[in-house]
Amino acid sequence: MLASRIIPCLDVSNGRVVKGIKFQGLRDTGDPADLGGAYEAQGADELVFLDVSATVESRDTQLDTVRKVRERMSIPITVGGGVRKVEDARALLEAGADKVSMNTAAVLNPELITEVAEQFGRQCTVVAVDAKRTEDSWEVVVSGGRKPTGKDALDWIEEAANRGAGEILLTSWDQDGTRSGYDLDLLKAASERVQVPIIASGGAASSQHLFEALQAGADAVLAASIFHDGDMTVGDVKRELAEMGVRVRP
To answer: Annotated catalytic, 28?
Structure first.
């Protein structure tokens, strides 16, 4: 069995790390390069860097910020936000990203997933899915959660994997920033639909929450607030998960 990955997330806007609740009310939490370097020192397995305003502002991801983060880190970095064509993905990889995450543009043009996977490999191709719970299912929302799409989230996850996504970054819109735990039903349903790794996102406040997400079928767990606010270090989380019987990397 592979070790579970612990992944801090940097939501970046205008060169600063921000955090909100359900993608709204963003507050400044620090410099991305400083935080990235600190998290690697704490034992982070990977880092996710999302330019959360790139799509809304119809601009490319800030490559200078990506380069600054890369200079401070040696662990794998996934970068997303503003990826609308293969050239955008190439620019991010050249700036230091190891993987490229697509969200809104992939929904609007699913063929983009295949194009990126064919150019750079499935291992570089991540599809981020923001899912909002409806009565008995989940709907894909885009543009930072501002726009419903009418797409069933589980169907979209399956399509993305079939088109070449090597990994799914699955965020529960309902749980994001609430510190009330991940949407375990969503994670369980998604992990049963696809064979590619699922990264759980949205709602973590404790090691117990991360443990529950892994038990529900996630292959990796992403968290932001608990690390940015200094509640726990990555090392704290790994130690507690190991005590719960989870295999984690040193």
So the answer is: no
Residue 248 included in any domain: no
Residue 182 falls within a domain, yes or no? yes
CATH number of the domain where residue 48 is located:
3.20.20.70
Q: Is 130 among the residues known to form the active site? A: yes
Average pLDDT, the chain: 92
- Domain residue limits at 48: 5-243
Instruction: Classify residue 46: in a domain, yes or no.
Output: yes
How many domains does the structure of the chain reveal? 1
**pLDDT tens by residue, 104-151:** 999 999 999 999 999 999 999 999 999 999 988 999 999 767 799 999
Residue-level pLDDT at 28: 78
Q: Of the listed 11, 51, 88, 183, which one is catalytic?
A: 11
The pTM (predicted TM-score) of the whole model is: 0.93
pLDDT at 36: 95
pLDDT, one tens digit per residue, over 38-79 is: 999 999 999 999 887 665 555 556 888 999 999 999 999 999
Catalytic choice (45, 51, 88, 130): 130
Going by C-alpha positions, the residue among 148, 147, 154, 159 that lies closest to residue 183 is 154
